[in-house]
Specification:
The chain is of the alpha+beta class. Helices cover 56% and strands 11% of the residues. Strands 3, 4, 5, 6, 7, 10 and 11 form a seven-stranded mixed β-sheet that branches. A hairpin with a 2-residue loop joins strand 1 and strand 2. The radius of gyration is 24 Å and the shape is globular. It starts with 7 loop residues before the first helix and ends in a 10-residue tail after the last helix.
Length: 603
């Protein structure tokens, strides 16, 4: 596999030029520290760590973790890399200064997490899971809980997980059976089994702090009866260190399709001591703090898969010789032309690049709301940001991860038969990328969340706000004197997408009134249309800024010309797929629901 290089120019372009994060940081707690010079330094140092420490371990880490009587050992090099990571203070970037953190905006950490994931997906999940635990405790933990756990989690000496899924239930958490019984000292005795726990057991940290959903004896039925608990692997000692072993054990690790270097564990809680977070029976509300953090990180994994696969495939395509170009010989001194000369190979490479860079822009755009949600100046600002982020999250998570799989699949295809062979590393990217569409809620679950909670139950408020921004951008870009013809055409397309997006939402609502199954049948297509519209907005913004800088004689002209070309490719060759999803939303429901259940019996 070719050496991985972090696309630093792209991060700088997004943060400094396209989205002007500097002006937004002025309204965020801790944002005054995030000067352009500091950002450049942080991103540059993160890139060095990714390229020199993590990327070389990506393929070797695919050999996987080992389990022996509850003890999990990570692949060679993982533990040493993690020690360097926490020594350099990377886990503390966005943590509270009161708990040893640096207090920087969340958007910086989100960008760095994408770099880490692109370099070594399985490794990056270990510190990535801790961020959600930190966010949950910061928002919902007691002062005593914060003192006991946050300093260790922020420093990275301890790590965190979230434990939701059980063998008999996945996303339908109302069915969970893990029980919590109060003890006389205010703690709880927890019994149950959790599965699919990423980073659930490993040898990287002194302690692992599990954030666990369970039900109290008097819990109401369904999701309203779920509570949230802290269950550490080792109970904190009086001096704050990892003390007595708690009643949580790793029963096994999963034998899975990808991310082999991450210990995805089955955890057994046998009379484990736990501590309630927040109010009884209010666990899901507290858990959503964790989930929003996790889903943004998962969305960026789609961009990571596209970036890593593109870098491998583009180098190979420039070197691999096969057949002659349809338009004439391009390599007269060789037996064949490089496959980069063939239009279909270029189509796949451009698709990968458009997904990687477009997805990165989508996540960065949403990260400004994460900044305000965490560090906004007023309660009203934080609430508004939470709502904006909540609308973006299912689109980001559902659309970008699906596109990441498309990009990774193209990477294998560019290599041909060699892409199917392990030594090249392309099939590993494809295997790893598949999980992103599944954990933190499958694409279908994200689609129902978007349509049900974020559009219909919200009475289209956030949809109108988002599409209103698209229309405002288009209005500013359409006057004939401003921008290039290509920019104006893209702006007009964005305006039409905004209007169509609203109309599709209204249509789905009307269909749902007649038959609720229509919402379920059309929800994924609505999500995918939303993703294409969102990405088109980002590509139009990037194209507009790139053209303006070229006209002013500013910036790196080669980088900016490449942005314009990739934007053109997206609008001409990828965006038309949105029309297919729009048409499918209104298709005959009977084609999905008419047949009885035994129709699906293949016996």
């Amino acid at each position: 596999m070719p050496d991985f290089k972090v696309p630093l120019k792209d991060y700088s372009f997004l943060f400094n030029d396209v989205l002007d994060m500097q002006s937004k940081y002025q309204h965020v707690k801790g944002g005054d520290q995030a000067t352009p010079d500091m950002l450049d330094a942080i991103f540059s140092e993160a890139a060095k760590f990714c390229e020199t420490e993590l990327a070389p371990l990506y393929q070797s880490g695919d050999k996987g973790c080992t389990w022996d009587d509850g003890v999990v050992t990570t692949p060679d090099g993982f533990k040493e890399a993690y020690a360097k990571f926490i020594e350099a203070g990377w886990t503390s970037l966005t943590g509270s200064p009161e708990m040893g953190g640096q207090g920087l905006p969340s958007s910086i950490s989100i960008a760095i997490n994408e770099m880490l994931t692109t370099a070594n997906w399985a490794w990056a999940m270990y510190p990535g899971l801790s961020e959600g635990a930190v966010a949950t405790l910061e928002d919902h933990g007691t002062d005593e809980q914060k003192q006991a756990y946050l300093t260790k989690l922020v420093s990275g000496v301890w790590s965190g997980t979230m434990c939701l899924t059980e063998p008999h239930c996945g996303t339908d958490l109302g069915q969970l059976k893990t029980k919590a019984v109060p003890n006389d000292d205010g703690s709880y005795k927890i019994n149950g089994t959790k599965i699919f726990i990423s980073a659930g057991e490993h040898d990287l940290t002194e302690n692992i702090v599990h954030i666990v959903l369970a039900k109290l004896p008097d819990a109401p039925k369904g999701t309203k009866g779920i509570s949230l608990f802290i269950i550490p692997k080792f109970l904190p000692a009086a001096d704050g260190s990892a003390g007595e072993r708690n009643g949580v054990r790793c029963g096994s690790i999963e034998h899975k399709m990808g991310i082999h270097g991450n210990g995805t564990a089955m955890l057994n809680f046998d009379d484990a001591t736990g501590f309630l977070i927040g109010e009884p029976h209010d666990g899901l509300n507290a858990m959503f703090t964790y989930m929003n953090v996790a889903r943004i990180g998962t969305a960026s994994q789609g961009s990571a898969a596209a970036e890593r696969s593109f870098q491998g495939a583009s180098k190979y395509a420039r070197e691999r010789l096969a057949m002659r170009s349809l338009s004439g010989v391009k390599n007269p001194d060789g037996p064949a032309d490089p496959i980069i000369a063939h239009p279909d190979v270029r189509r796949m490479l451009l698709t990968q690049r458009a997904i990687a860079e477009g997805g990165r822009a989508m996540v960065t755009y949403a990260s400004q709301f994460a900044d305000l949600y965490v560090g906004g100046e007023t309660e009203g600002v934080r609430e508004a940001a939470e709502n904006r982020l909540g609308f973006c999250t299912p689109i980001l998570k559902g659309f970008i991860t699906e596109q990441g799989v498309v990009a990774a699949n193209h990477g294998v295809q560019v290599f041909g038969g060699h892409g199917y062979i392990q030594e090249w590393g392309m099939e590993q990217i494809l295997r790893d990328s598949r999980i992103a569409t599944l954990y933190e809620g499958t694409t279908g679950i994200q689609a129902l969340d978007l349509v049900g909670r974020k559009v219909l139950m919200d009475r289209f408020k956030q949809l109108k706000i988002f599409t209103g921004e698209m229309l405002s951008f288009a209005a500013e870009s359409l006057p004939w004197r401003k921008g290039s013809k290509g920019n104006r055409k893209q702006a007009w397309t964005v305006a039409k997408l905004a209007v169509k997006w609203r109309l599709l939402g209204y249509r789905l609502a009307m269909q749902g009134k007649k038959n609720p199954d229509a919402v379920g049948a059309g929800s994924v297509d609505f999500l995918m249309f939303s993703g294409y519209a969102y990405m088109a907005f980002m590509w139009a913004k990037m194209s507009s800024v790139a053209q303006a800088q070229l006209d002013a004689g500013e910036g790196d002209s080669k980088f900016l010309q490449e942005k314009l070309h990739t934007a053109e490719f997206f609008f001409e060759r990828m965006l038309p797929q949105a029309d297919v999803h729009a048409k499918t939303i209104g298709a005959n429901l009977g084609s999905v629901m008419a047949m009885p259940t035994d129709y699906f019996d293949a016996s």
